[in-house]
């Protein structure tokens, strides 16, 4: 029984770490991986989703609906930002660094002025269960499952729907897609909104487990960028194995040596993986197929 | 390269590029010592920006690692001077030590990156990871066991109390601060600018542009891509280190938060806003943005960061090639210099550089 | 381009100066500089400090100022950024030339500006709790220090809950030094450290830490976590049903987590603070009334706000004792040991040897519904440690920060 609980504890930690990396990365994988826009405001979409979820839940909206609202709010914010700012930068993607950084500054500071330095949070749903001498939060044990479900839904979206085919075509070769009659500007807006909405969903999912402050998005940024880049250009076949690999290493190091080694180990792993596979993990899978 | 016949350019247009430098040299005579010191502070960040502009604008290498070398160099200066004393000679050796450490570490990391065929955005992530590893590691070195000789690393609270730069002077060593520090920074800036201009306007710069535009073609023409990239990377990172050493000298203090995520993004923001293909633009833009950020903090109270964000947004949307090229282009248009004939060959390339 | 003042311009300048100095002596304001974060990561805990300072200045001016002179507050927003602290400290010292400077929240920002203060012999007050050890001629500290907070808290917790202690601390100076204090006090009182974990400041996910604590089975957990990222621990440990009492020197009193987190995240958290808003004495209630009259939307009046408020009054008392704002005279007045205020947090006196303040320590217990009770109060707890290890500022000028493993050299 003791070994079972220890083993499950490791699995639980891995799932926790994996869910965190994947969910942090998904929105960015769409915006950065697919569209090439370096979105330094990714954390703010997450914050937006979290804040809307908390405000809605405190008004009495049931939690799943509140989370959906959070994701939609972030998606709408994405539409606004894409129309106003991002669409002028498609021919000079490096400048999206400055633009999204500026947006991030403005949003964070405005949130501080409008909503105050902190928002009273909501409780983690579902309670806990115990196994041996350990007890685990049920919600966090379920999060990896939710992450995988979202990945599956994304797969269906990109490969089985009309939008998915059009979006992939546009990303691959925008001019050709335009010649074939696709409304590329509308597709770009929709894809950016999708990325923003996914980030908002991450914020919504983590809102019951974290402190709600205007800078909460910065917790996710580093993990998101490293997972996306290590994964390479492919949203699903790249980000997922990248998150899995990084999660395994981080879990193992944290369990054996503590949080400091876990953090440093994650970053060192990124350097090593990129050095060994300069095109990212996604390419490896593409080539294997 | 078409050699056009140069019509006589007037003395004023030829002297124009030197005017900002002359103005800068005369500034301490007009303003008080504190303003000079503050200007020196705004200018010392420019080295990091120049290094990044060279790497990014010419070499196409987007590195988030400038602040890693900033910190490394600052700590090296502190460790050296706290251990070996604070006479004028040792303080300058400390500055040299900071630069040497930057060169060595940049060479090692650059070797791993370029000879490992890492390209594009991956370079950014690798350099960012290096920076964050350094920051995380240095933040926890608070304990007494983390000391190099006499100098305690002191973790997150930072290392302080290192001596300033001094020069021998009749009547006792002169501490370089305020106006004298300003002149030091300015002289270094002039030297760096001249060297970078010569390098980047010459064969080295053109080779870098060729590599950036089409690496395979450059390779087929016999260019050693990796060696050029490695060289510009080492140069750029060392300039970042110079900024760090000067900052540590200015404030007698260095802390891991100068290597954090926000700090790592700042050089990229400055260079992207000022125009990454223009070295002079990087200097002016960085100094201006640092000065602006300071004054917004003083006068803008809680709206400071919002205003800063708005300004950055407007600049990046309205001036695609960067602030300085935008301004010079409009100045030229206003002063009626639309005659195409009067262009020197190299100036034409520089002009087209600004457009792409 | 070279401007040389011409002869009669110099004359005009002198005349102007003479005129202003004739008229100035009566209404010459006492300039107080303030360097605090009104934005950024730390604003949560520092905005109450800024408001408290403004309240104190307003009250003093309403009563006629200090020595009949009005008080002018020159405040800069340092944006939770160490470089801004350095830039604006320089600006204050060189351009505004205040009579005293108050400010800084994190130890890093204090250490960034202390050299600037020392170089200019500028009187400087640090009004935050911290890891202790600053023995500096120009610096006065009203914040609480480990010997005040831990030597009261830890023995009490050990007596109530048991002798097995697990510490989780932020992995930087404050966390490491505080953990060292905890370790020493636990040993002195016959307890055992069953575990100690140091968490980098950027970490916000504590799954593994919670498992480690469960495995070690302590009687209570000492949590020395700092910052918004690390504060996610409380919700996570509550949702995993860890169910252990917690002891801290740094929560509730500073960032009022019991008001910001949903119950029962902070259930059975015990904190030793030198003031919390829930202190129910006549002086405290009067203070709260005046505070809320000026700042009705203040989310919480934390201990740093009380320290900042009292610091202004302590400075006023020192200036009145010295009879002038001359910084050397004020320093000497503070070193007589008789400068005290008695306000919302009880009696606060400046200890001459270490320049730190004695405090009333309140033991704050957060209950399951996040309401607060104060089971014990210690009065007049002295900041004895620095004096004990050899810091003697009236007789031995100094500028350094010491730690239990880095003591002053015996001279």
Characterization of this structure:
The complex is a heterotrimer of chains A (289), B (356) and C (411). Chain A has 12 helices and 2 strands; from the N terminus they run ααααββαααααααα. By secondary structure, chain A is an all-alpha fold. In chain A, strands 1-2 form a two-stranded antiparallel sheet. In chain A, a hairpin with a 2-residue loop joins strand 1 and strand 2. Chain A is globular and about 65 Å long. A two-stranded antiparallel sheet of chain B has the order 1-2. A two-stranded antiparallel ribbon of chain B has the order 3-6. Chain B is mainly α. In chain B, helix 4 (46-58) packs antiparallel against helix 11 (225-251) and helix 5 packs antiparallel against helix 6. Chain C is built from 14 helices and 16 strands. In chain C, strands 7, 8, 9, 10, 11, 12, 13, 14 and 15 form a 9-stranded mixed sheet that branches. A 5-stranded parallel sheet of chain C has the order 2-1-3-4-6, with helices on both faces. In chain C, strands 5-16 form a two-stranded antiparallel ribbon. In chain C, helix 2 (43-62) packs parallel to helix 12, helix 5 crosses helix 6 and helix 12 (303-322) crosses helix 13 (327-334). The radius of gyration of chain C is 23 Å and the shape is globular. The relative contact order of chain C is 0.13. Mean pLDDT of chain C is 89; it is low at 20-25. The A-C interface holds A 9, 12-13, 16-17, 20, 109, 112, 116-124, 127-128, 130, 133-137, 139-140, 208-211, 213, 215-216, 219, 222, 251, 254-255, 258-260, 262-263 and C 39, 41, 43-44, 47, 171, 197-200, 202-205, 207-209, 211, 214-215, 217, 228-229, 231-232, 235-236, 238-242, 255, 259-262, 265, 299.
